[in-house]
Amino acid sequence: MAYRDPAPRRLSGQKQNTFFGGAAVLALGILVVKLIGMFYKIPLTNIIGEQGNADFGNAYNIYSVLLTISTAGLPVAVSKMVSEANALGRRNQVHKIFRISLGVFLLLGGISFFIMFFQADYLASLMNDDKAALGIRALAPAVVCVGCLSAFRGYAQGHGQMTPTAISQIIEALCKLVIGLSLALWIIQSGQGEDVAAAGAITGVTVGTIVAVIYMAVHHLRQRLREPRADRDVPDRGSEILRELLRIAIPITLSSSMVGIVTVIDSALVQGQVQRVLLEDPASWSMYAGVTDFEPLRQALNTWTGQLEAGMSASMATLHQQVQQAAASQSPTALQTAALALDEVLQDISRTLYGNYNGAINIYNLPTALMAALTASVIPAVSGALARRDRRGASRVSGSALRIAALLSFPMGVGLFVMGEPIIRLLFTSLNAPLAGSLLSTLGLTAIFSCVTLVCNSVLQAYGFVTLPVVVMVLGGVVKVVTNYTLVGMGEIGIYGAPVGSVLCFALCLALDLAIIARVVPHHPRFLPIFAKPLAASALMGGTAWAVYGLLSRVLSVVPEGETERVLSWSGNAVATLVAIGAAVAVYAVLIVLLRAISREDLALMPKGEKLARLLRL
To answer: What is the pTM of this model?
Structure first.
């Protein structure tokens, strides 16, 4: 997409040159998929409960890493090589690229399948959640299917066809929604465990990939039938094509997999630390009063410690050693049997706590998902300006992208921070609202930093600095893992420390990204004017939401019969939350206009932006 000067008079009537025009189809597809995902995750969490939500999240984290390693960079490499071969009229080269890439995808997908299916128990134990194994196995076939999907999508995008990719993504999401939720609900109603229901929900993901592969295969065959007979061009040798595929794909795969790897490591460490603290510091149990019943843990712990030999410490290391000995023994001793029982109870409690955290993460991910269209359009817009050597134009686009990111992410983050518990009460009736709400409030701050960081990464990539954002994300990931391991391991903090690492991670990433942009980007945007007004408007908006909700919750709360304290029902909370959000949105919209937080140039980069600018009198 070629970027043009953002002056409104030059953009009038030229929809193809708007800021979001270049990636419209894919961005719309991503947005639809994310919305479907929201309607999937919210009822799913209420169906499978806290522990099932933890099992689902742990299985999906393992799947995401192996999926990224198998498919992250190759679709980009395929689309690039196919596009280049098409431009040269080399039809035989195009077909050979596709055949080789499909073979590579199948090989990597097959390896990932065997790892997930036959090593599911080991992978689940690494996550400190043995009951996630069933979900990991249910996801194993999806890795192979997504590999095939990646080949078909790369081939279609190399021909400039974005619609098939968007449709296949929507098919995946719809199957996940309908089949996954139906299976999970049926399993719960049949009286089976939450871990089985989580695996049933995950089966919907696998079925969705199978149906999407069938759609893409049919589309591919129909396209091949319409194509003219192949030319007589001589394709490159298979080894040369494979070498070029890997040359392009490996750097992208390495950079893309970092986030998933950090997430898996962090999830495993957090759950492991929660279990260690519960075992070694019983005083920490009071912090989770009302979240779970600790009587089974007290009984299991007393039974185990009562059988420990003299000189043996009641530590997590000792427990793990005995659990491993029990797993290797055909006839475990009484002490080993007690260790197995204690380990299961500890995992159940950590699953409950982590399930609440995972529910908060599902809401936190929504603002980031809404950045998809913006980040997808930054690179071509800035690159187009740079190609014309219009550095000031590139700087204006970069500044507008950062300003729009701030205008969208600041109010969403502040809203989550202020309304964390009411939002959890509204959406997730199966979660513990005080716990999950507190975690969501902290994650709301993370949403601000992470959304703007994504746009900063796109700006740096558009200027040709591809490696720097990856290095920054790795540094942030290290901070996240170390912080979470330390804080969650403190008995007085526990699971409440889990989102703090994310805050520090993305705060560091944003600070470094902005420093790098200021250093390497000519005519870089001025950051204070970009962020100050949205921050001020968001703070006032947050105060409005807090005040309106506080007032309405007092008015709508009632004293149940036989009780002395006022209680806010679900319906009362829903009314108070929705009215507070509506009032906050109205206040924020007025403040944005009054503070002139958005400029005419910003609006000119959007579809129908000139009309909106006239309406707002900018």
So the answer is: 0.85
- Residue in this structure with the two tokens 């790369």, named with its chain if needed: 154
Report whether 483 contacts 498 (CB < 8 A): no
Task: Locate the domains of the chain by residue range.
Answer: 277-346
Run of H or E residues at 186: helix 181-189
Structure tokens at 179: 């089949």
Dihedral-angle region of residue 596 (phi above 0 means left; psi in -120 to 50 means alpha; beta otherwise): left
CA nearest to 549, candidates 541, 561, 560, 559: 541
Helices (H), 329-390: 334-370, 372-387
Residues 471-523 have pLDDT tens digits of: 888 899 999 999 999 999 998 999 999 999 999 999 999 999 999 988 887 77
Question: 470, 539, 477, 468: which is closest to 508 by C-alpha?
Answer: 477
Residue type, 321: Q
Residue type, 224: R
| DSSP letter assigned to residue 578 | H
**Separation CA 444–CA 412 (nearest Å):** 8
Torsion region of 440: left, alpha or beta (phi above 0 gives left; psi -120 to 50 gives alpha): alpha
Q: List the one residue out of 334, 329, 332, 340 whose CA is nearest residue 300.
A: 340
